[in-house]
Each structure stands twice: as structure tokens, then as C-alpha cells.
Amino acid sequence: MTESEDFYFRTMELPDELLVGAIDTHVHAGPVLASNPGHSDPIEIALEARAAGMRAIVYYDVFGGSSGTAWMVNRHVPGIATYGAYLMNSGHGGLNPRAIKTALHIEGGCRMISFGSHCTHHQASRESTVIDGKAVPLHEAYPKFAAEELSRAIRIPAEGAISDELAEILELVAARPEVYLNTGHVSHDEVFRIVELAEEYGIGKVLVSHPARGLLSVAEQKDLAARGVYLEGALVDIFATAVPLTHYYVERDYIDRGFEIPRTTRPVPTYMETLREVGPEHIVLGTDYGVRNLPTAVQGMRTWITLLLDYGFTVDQIRAMTADNPARMLGIDDDPEPARSRVAQYPEEP
Ligand SMILES: [Zn+2]
């Protein structure tokens, strides 16, 4: 299988064949807030992925770390590698070097440190409620949100000196070559500063998260790719429901309802064209699935692959984005015991 699918001979089976060996680098499998139940628990999704022949999954936990989840699943579900990550969100103090240090030492092998999702300044200033049929940013609708949440959100200075906390976090990540840095849901300018800082501090692997990638032009994405940066694509960008998905904050008023009102449209053909122009050799795909009102992450991965076939991507290009690049980013091939903790290699750190 090295060619594009023959238009006159398309099969039900090809997506399933391409699922074998695939890696979903962005899976939400709970636990989540009781107000926002997920679709599958971590073991259920690992079993489904293993049954489909998938190679690995990376768990995301918007509240902090998922290495403990990966640790438990790896102990009890052989035959598939699962990995954990840590997202710097406000629940753990945002830019908190101690939280990062702990995350890197938790059993289970943390493979990704992210600047966070809901609690970056960029994202927190955009999450919205709906008033009189219009999206209104939470910080405008609720002064308490502005005072208590937006004020705590993570901001990366576009230029100039960085805080001691950020410097320490970058040093911690640089000391772990198997770990990749995820930009998180930051702004356009912050993406470039993070990449610059990663180069300065000697961090080998950077992933531009999907919403941040969506803020970049094709030329900018190509420039970053030429610097060795991975660019994420998530199925949720093009295949999601226009209803509230994630409850990060426990307060009912703080549910992000902004996309009940169509804001930007990201037509599927345009999205696919961008992947093609940037170059599949630089793209890492994941589903970002896990909420109850979407299919399972494994079905999501099958849909991703099917859509790519529908848009004429070759089998090799699909493999690059769903298997080879993710494996490289995770360093699975260098890993004698996939998904096991590497903590023992790092008894002391800066
Ligand atoms: Zn996500």
C-alpha cells in the first residue's frame, strides 16, 4: 500500500487497515467534572485502540497530569503503549515549576509538557457565554472571572526577559530529551516566542497545538516546520458539535458556550489543503475526542483516516501523520520499554 486509493475501487476495509499501527496523540479519557461526563474511561479506550491494532495513545487531562492514568493502564492493558502528559492550567498554579518537576517524576512516563488549554490568557480571554443571542467573553460578562481567572492565566512575553518560573520550566523540559513541549492554546505571537525559547534552552521537540496552529498562516507553519517543529491537527477542529464541550471551571456560568454561535468557519476542504501545503511530514494528527457527545477516540481516528482518503491523501502521507511522526515525537522507537517510566534515568534534575 503505497499509492492513493483508486477512486473506482474504494473499500470499507482500508481505514481499518490504516488504523493498525496508528497513534492518537490527543485523547481525553477522564476523569472529568461530573457536570461533563466523558465518553470512555482510560481502560475502555485503550482496549478499543488495542483491538483496532493501534500502537499508542496519549492521554490529556485538562486539569493537570495524566501520567498516573497511563501508568495504571500500562500495568493492566498490555499490547498497547499509553503515555501521560502535563498541562499547565490554573488548577495547579499555572507556571509552576514544582508541578512540572513532580509531573516529570510521576510513574508512568510523562511525555509532554503543555502551556495549557483553558487557562492560557489567549484562550481564557476568548471563552464566552451567550447573552441575548450573542457571544460575550466570560471576562466581560463576569467581573469575577476577570479578577480571579483571567488574571491567573498564562502569558508568555512576546519579547524581553522571561520570569524565573518560565526559565526553570524550560530547563526542566530541556533536561528530558524524550519529552516534547506543547505550545498549548496560546496566541500567534506566543507561538513564535515559545519556539525561540525552546531553541535557546535546547528543547529538542516542540508541538504547536491545534488551536495555536490555526492562528498561523501556511507560510508561517512552513517556516516553523523547517525549524523542526511539529504541527498538530485535531479532528475536533473540523468534526465536532456546536454545543458546549468542555467544562473546565466548576461554575455553571463559566461553561464556554461561544461556539453555539458560529464564529469562524473552518471548511473541511480548506483544512485539508493546509495540511497538504504545510506538508504531511511535519504534521501530527490526533482526535482531541473524549467528550460524551462525540464518538469514541478510536472511531474518531477511523474517521480522520477516512476523511484523509476522501481528500486524496496517499497511504504514505496518512501513515506519516498518524503513525510515523507521532512515533518520532514520542520517541517510541528509542524506548526499550515503551510507555514505562524513565524516571530512574533522572535521579536528579536542575
Ligand atoms: Zn484537547
From TrEMBL:
Pfam families: DUF6282. This is Amidohydrolase family protein. It comes from the Bacteria. Residues 328-350 are annotated as: Disordered. It comes from Ruania alba. SUPFAM superfamilies: Metallo-dependent hydrolases. InterPro entries: DUF6282, Metal_Hydrolase.
